[in-house]
Amino acid sequence: MKTIAVLTSGGDAPGMNAAIRAVIRYGIHKGCKVYGISRGYKGLIEGDLAEVDLRSACDIIHRGGTILRTARCEEFMTEEGRRQAATVLRVFGVDGLVVIGGDGTFKGARELAKLGVNVVGIPGTIDNDLPYTDYTIGFDTAINTVLDAIGKIRDTSSSHERISIIEVMGRNCGDIALYAGLAGGAEEVVIPEKGQDMEKIFRELLESKSRGKKQSIIILSEGVGEAHELEKQIKEKTKMDSRSTVLGHIQRGGSPSAFDRILATKMGATAVELLIQGKTARVIGIRNNMIFDMDVEEALGVIKKFDSETYELIDILAN
What we know:
Oligomer: single chain
CATH architecture of the largest domain: 3-Layer(aba) Sandwich
Helix content: 40-55%
Order of helices and strands: EHEHEHEHEHEHEHEHEHEEHH
Number of strands: 11
Strand content: 15-25%
Structural class: alpha/beta
Number of helices: 11
CATH topology of the largest domain: Rossmann fold
Strand order of the largest sheet: 3-2-1-4-5-10-11
Radius of gyration: 22 Å
């Protein structure tokens, strides 16, 4: 393994730069030439590669986003596009590729491996929706961003004695809402895995009001509904004052937490080590606080197990 390349694809996540830094510096430490690919698979198809050095990884571990930038690429979804990507890697003499991203990125890695590309994937997505690993890079930072918002919104919610609905990201995975809801002391958490039980929400809000509670926080995952619609229904059914806030893409930005920096760094170094050992079509994860790797096809086939204990704990503690 003489030459490796690294790219980031899909949605950006805090900690991606820490992973890029680790790939660059560990790769050079191992005697490899390292290329950075701009704009994900789109940049790869277009040959947007540039050799990087130790200075390229300076002053980036604390930065959110990705210095390599990212983009969606419909062309890569075609066999012709993937073959073009594989050809570009051969032209540049790239022996191994590190891809950082979510499930779409991993599916792309799987297809490249079928074309003979040595590839290793690192999970980078705030959604934490890759079930084979306990945590993905960026998830911890996103939760802390939501927690900061909960604290600020709770202040004004208490002042006005109202219900505050906070819509968070996560697509069809409710982990951001679930974990932030527990840590933020939310009264209700609405997630795709459980759906919207509107009668339960209305009943519990009214029961809280009858006990003298003046305000409540509801965390709503984007995959199960819209905050503005829930706000409207609460006003109509309970006659209680409510306001909705959609946090949106602020959850993707910001300096990564210590946990995400450490996780990304360990995964980046592990990815390079796997390529040097001649392993391919592998993805890296963390389980029981241990870094591990597994086949990409196997990883994509893992079914997520819902954390019912955490969900039930939120419900108990909210009373």
